[in-house]
Sequence to fold (526 residues):
Amino acid sequence: MGAEDAIAEIYRTESRRVLATLIRLLSDFDLAEEALQDAFATALEKWPEEGLPANPRAWLVSTGRFKALDALRRRARFDASLEQIAERLGHGVTLPDPDEESVEDDQLRLIFTCCHPALPPDARLALTLREVCGLTTEEIAHAFLSTPPTVAQRIVRAKAKIRDAGIPYRVPEWAELPDRLDSVLQVIYLVFNEGYSASSGGSLTRHDLSAEAIRLGRLLVDLLPEPEAVGLLGLMLLHESRRIARTSAEGELVLLAEQDRMRWNQEQIVEGTALVERSLASRRFGPYTLQAAIAAVHAEASTAAATDWAQIVGLYDVLARVDPSPVVELNRAAAVAMRDGPAAGLVLIDAILVRGDLADYHLAHSARADLLRRLGRTGEARIAYERALALARQEPERRFLERRLAELTAA
Amino acid sequence: MKYLCLIYSDETQWPKLAKAESDKMMAEYMDFTESIKRSGQHVGSNRLQPTHTATTIRTRNGKTSTTDGPFAETKEQLGGYYLIEARDLNDAIQVGSRIPGARYGSIEVRPIAEM
Fold:
C-alpha cells in the first residue's frame, strides 16, 4: 500500500475523530474543519517522503491545531480581536493527549452537541450526518429530499446557535442524561428509518443511511452503554436483518408473514437478540428496547405461523404503558388479531380510528382492510384498501395495495 | 455567560389559586432564589405585575403612541425573570428547569449579547 492509499485509509477511519478533538481544542466548528483539511493536505505533502508518523491521529491533531493557530495569527494582522483568540487558544491548551479515552470522549461530545435539543430537529439530523458521519451536504440533501443550499443553511444556522447560545462541547452530566440521550437516540433512529423505509420515492430502502445509523449506534454503545442505546442498536440490527427479504426480486414489498425467513441475516439476528437481552437485564430499559424485544420474538420464529403472538401482545402492553401512542395501539391491535382472531383486532382498530387519531395514516387503513378481508367482508375491505391507497406515498406500498385490491376483485 | 430566564405562564390562573397553593408557590420561589444566590448564579430577578398594568409604546417619525396592554395576545404571559450567570447553555437549562414556574408554564432561556 502506497503512502497515498494509506492516507486515504486514515482519512476514512480517523478524520471524524481528529475533527472531534480539533473542535474541542479550537472551540469552533468551521476553524476545526479548515484545520482538518489543512492537516491532511500537509500529510499528503510530507508522509510520502518522511513515512507515516508513529501515531497518525495525534500527528494530524497537532498539525491541524498548529495550522489553525497560524491562520488565526495571519488574519490577526487585519483584525486585532483574532490575536486575542489565537493567544488564548495557543496558551494553556495541552498538546493532544494520545490517550484513547479522551479522544473517544471527544466523539461523544460531538454527538451530544450536534443532537442538542436546543437545536431544531432537522438541524440536529443534518449536523450529525455532516460532522459525526462526514457526509457532504449534497449527500444529506439527496437522502432527505432537500436541496444542498437548504441543508447548508440549516448547518450554518445550527453552528451559529451553538456558538451564540453557548451550547457546550461536553458530555451531559448524569442528571441531564435521560433527556439528552433521548435526543441522540431519536436522531440515530430517524437516520435509520429514513434509510430503511424512505418516506417517499421509488426505492423502498436507502441502504447507506441505515448502515450509517448502525455505525452511529455502535459508536454510541461503545462510548456510553446505556440500556436504551443498547436497545436501539439491537432494534436496528433486527430490522436490518430482514432487509433483503422484505423486497422481492421485482422490487415489490413483501410482508413479514410472507418473507422467506431463510434470507434473514442470522448474524445480525444473533447480535441484535443478545443486545436486547443485555438491555432487558439492566431493568432500566425503555421503548427502543421493547420494540427490539418484539422484533426479536419475530426473529426467533422459524415460520410466521410459529410466532409467539401472546408474548408479542404482552410486550405491546408494556410498550403502551411506557410510551403510549396511537401507532403502538395499532400495532398491538394487529398482534391481538393474530392471537385472538381478526374480529378481536378489528374492534380495537375501529376504536382508534373513531377517535380520529390515525385517520390519515395509510397503515391503519390497510391493517383494517386486511382484517376485513380475512373476515370475508369483501366490500368493506375494498373501501378500506382504497382509502389506504389514497393516503400511501411510497411506490412499492402503493403497488402492494393495488395488488390486494385486484385480488379482492378477482376473488 | 449570562442568560435571561423569562418566565411565561397563563396569568388568568393566578387569582384562581387557593391561598395555601399560592403560599406554597411563593415559598418555592424564595427557596429557589436563595439556592442560586448561594451558588453565585443569581444576577437579578423580579416578578412583574399582571399584563393589565402594561403599556406598549411605539415611536414612529418622532411621534409617540401609547397603547394599553401587551403587544401580542398570547396564551402565556411574561410574569417575571431571573438573570443568571451560567457556565454554558446546559448549565443555564439546569438552573432554568428548577424555576418553579417551569412546572406550570414555560421558561425561555436567552443568552445575553456580550458587547
